[in-house]
Amino acid sequence: MLEPSKKDNPNTSITVDPPKPIRVLMSLMLNRMMDPVRLQKQRDASEAERQKSGAPHRVEYFHQLDDPYSHLSAQKLADLTAAYDIEIVPHLINATGGKNQPYPEDLASYARRDAAAVAPHYNVSFPGNAGTLPRDDDRLLAARILAAASPADFVDRAAPVSDLLWVGDHSALQALADELGTVNDKEALNRLAEDSAMLQKEGHYSGGTFRYAGEWFWGIDRLYHLEARLKERGAHKEGAAPVADRPPLDWGATKDNGTITLEVFPSLRSPYTAIIFDKACELADKSGVKLVVRPVLPMVMRGVPATQNKGRYIFSDTKREADALGVGYGPVYDPIGEPVRRAYSLFPWAASQDKGRELLSAFLDAAFRKAVRIDTDRGMKKVVEAAGLSWNEAKPHLGSDTWKAEVAENQRVMTEDMQLWGVPSFRISAPGSAPDFTAWGQDRLWLVAAEIKKRIAENN
Fold first, then answer.
1. How far apart are CA 47 and CA 229, in angstroms?
2. Domain coverage including residue 445
3. For the chain, give me the number of helices (H) and strands (E)?
4. Of all residues in the chain, what percent are helix, strand and coil, respectively (each to 5)?
5. Residues 6+ apart with CB under 8 A from 395
6. How many domains does the chain have?
7. 3-class SS of residue 108
8. Model pTM greater than 0.90?
9. Per DSSP, which regions of 15-116 are E strands?
10. What count of other Cβ atoms lies within 10 Å of the Cβ of residue 419?
């Protein structure tokens, strides 16, 4: 299926296909939200308030017991307190579910696999014998142990408790409970409910997440941003090493000869795609692998539920990720709906001239870095010409349906074969018995590069 009907799409029609005045307003709001001057003023105000009250640098941490990413984050808590003059305030939460976390079974399966792949690169671990989810009785016992801990004790106990929980060692978990002490079932369940409600009230939705001075940092992947904020405020302890630097993009010194295929599944409304698409294409060029670009529709157009909180976090998180990557991001003109369809209507024609990649890159640049009015012919003309194509030759293809079957098949492959639904997604394949490697997210391109490096080494 390419797109659900308006009736079957859980997202409102004004979100999927906004009228032009609404699109303009949405874009203005997004640009204001990620304005660097405004963000810095917010951080400065928070720091001034902290100093006035005499409070310590306080970092809140939201731990979800059945979340693989929380297991990774928990292993960095003690390192954070050793490297920074901070006080960690822990919270215990349940999975948010609903529109913030659609497809919970698929998410649990992917998160377990992804956490195991990421862990060694951050010098942490995920149990190889872990199931997709811990047992409910073990999860409650772990909650009872951690709910009884003081904040300082939580920092030391979260990781070992989480490890026993994920390996399913009930006897060892019970022995630890007997040694350390617990709260009762009711108290643990109340703590989970209260802290989960707090997370929702404060505007976030994921476990393994940190908050400092009003800013959110999801998981081990974003700890380097948290560390940067703490260093800005003088909380770094002299001589302490970084806790969780982002792994480098390293595809090795040896090039492939095209036997390995890298498929990239981008969306033209994805902020994360906008900042990583060119780098993904460059990775294929430099490593010698065969690049296949397989565009898909934005999630809300495909009927994947979304919330305003999730959208706000993604757009603001993309700004700091873009800054770290050294790529531009903003000002934005939201391309959701018809502008995306019109751009895709040109894709088969552009691809026939070996310019499909260039067309997508030019559209993302126009929408997410230059705020071009891509909902007008004038704006689309700029996109087409920036891709090195002729606008006069493009016009007969604009608005055609020739793209729909290809994009629908790309979506089927991504969601059914790869069991992913977010963008950008990646798949690496090669002749032989090795299974395909799949990953989701712009913050996994370094992992894609590592997999390419490994496969090139295996072929030589």
1. 11
2. 261-459
3. 21, 8
4. 55, 10, 35
5. none
6. 2
7. helix
8. yes
9. 57-64, 86-93
10. 16
> Cα–Cα distance between 410 and 398 in angstroms, integer?
21
Structure tokens at 361: 């890159």
20-71 tens-digit pLDDT: 999 999 999 999 999 999 999 999 999 999 999 999 999 999 999 999 999 9
Quickly state the pLDDT bin for 434 (edges 50, 70, 90): confident
User: How many Å is the maximal CA-CA distance in the chain?
Assistant: 76
Please identify which residue in the block is written with the tokens 């809140």. 60
Cα 198 to Cα 191: distance, rounded to the nearest angstrom: 11
The DSSP output letter for 417 is I
For the segment 199-227, what is each residue's pLDDT rounded down to a tens digit? 999 999 999 999 999 999 999 999 999 99
CA angle 156, 149, 70 (to 5 degrees): 55
Distance CA 234, CA 232 (A): 6
Q: Does 280 reside within a domain?
A: yes
CATH number at residue 212: 3.40.30.10
Q: Are 291 and 438 contained in the same domain? A: yes
Distance between CA atoms of residues 325 and 336, nearest Å: 25
Tell me which residue of 161, 135, 148, 151 sits closest to 71, measured CA to CA. Answer: 161
